[in-house]
Predict the structure.
Amino acid sequence: MNDILIKKTIAVFQETFGTSPEKMVLSPGRINIIGEHIDYNDGYVLPAAIDKIICFAFAKNNSKKSRILALDLNEEFEVDLTQPISLSNVVWTNYILGVIKQLQDNGLLFGGFDCVFSSDIPVGSGLSSSAALECGTIFGIAALFNLSIPKVDIALMGQKAEHWVGINCGIMDQFSSVMGQENKVIKIDCKTLDYEYHDANFNDYSLILFDSNVKHSLMTSAYNERREQCDEGLAIIKSNFPEITSFRDCNESHVLSIKEEMAPNVFDRCYYVIKEIHRVALACKALDNGDIKTLGKLLFETHEGLSKEYLVSCQELDFIVDTLKQEKAVIGSRMMGGGFGGCTINLIKKGEEEAIKAKLTQMYKEAFDIELKIYDVKIGNGTSLYEPVF
Ligand code: GLA
């Protein structure tokens, strides 16, 4: 728990609004072990919430307006809750406006509130700081105004807010931010939203994130385009195999047998999705059996697919994975999240972490003149209330 972050958030709330917060919320970012770009393709994913969080302080202000302060940016905005909600040109405010709109559209009534938030989730690193912001805001408003909203609905509203902002994302980020549990990964069935927890026990290996420290602007448009290509491919598959309703019903031979009917890029996307759905099942089994080497091998395979078939990697991420592949101490590595920058997730033999970190940092700097960032993440709890002591 980041005590400094919490104390700072409380202090700034008290200074700004002249009163103590009534509710505090901690909302985490997420990692994903495996199952990339398949949440919106009805697949299974294996994410977990992490110990990097956004800390929120809230109080009612007995008006019809809400004032929200982003402490790390030192920016503030006000929203009149009686007026129609529309997009602003300040990006972070849109996630909050988006969830306010979601709550209102769902007939959930609430009044004005004051809010300060601060975060130690790196932004633009593929750790879903936006999902943490959406879900933490809904959680706080619900607590403040006694709205009873099931956790899964909080995740769904967070996802809709993200769509409103412009990324047609799947459910993985918001679901894992809300539903995370310490030392557990969540296997989510993204079609039914059934889920189960599995022990996050990596035995002799540490889970380390290497942040490429780049974020290519292609992300939003490419993401939405991938979704469209997958939808197009699935429609072709369905028209050939009426018994198939979803990618999860397919095996490789289905798509290989109708390859000529698809544009080459549509084929590549579908081929990746079908293989990745299968890899998640294998990875989950490997994790349960303590077979971390097999899990690592699957991570390398996923990266290969994301890079060569799904085309969401970039030269910096490929460099990190290719470099680490040469190291005996690294048994698995892949880009994580939406892609075009952000982090790789890596399994490194315990005791060898520091040597690998030092070597990669230097090689990465030499190759791109960019500082590699490194996070030793722990798997933490999902969005929750925090009881402060004043
Ligand atoms: C982003 C989206 C998620 C998911 C991942 C890729 O993080 O928000 O819904 O699609 O990319 O797996």
About this structure: The pocket of alpha-D-galactopyranose is lined by residues 36-37, 39-40, 128, 169-170, 172-173, 337-338 (CB under 6 Å).
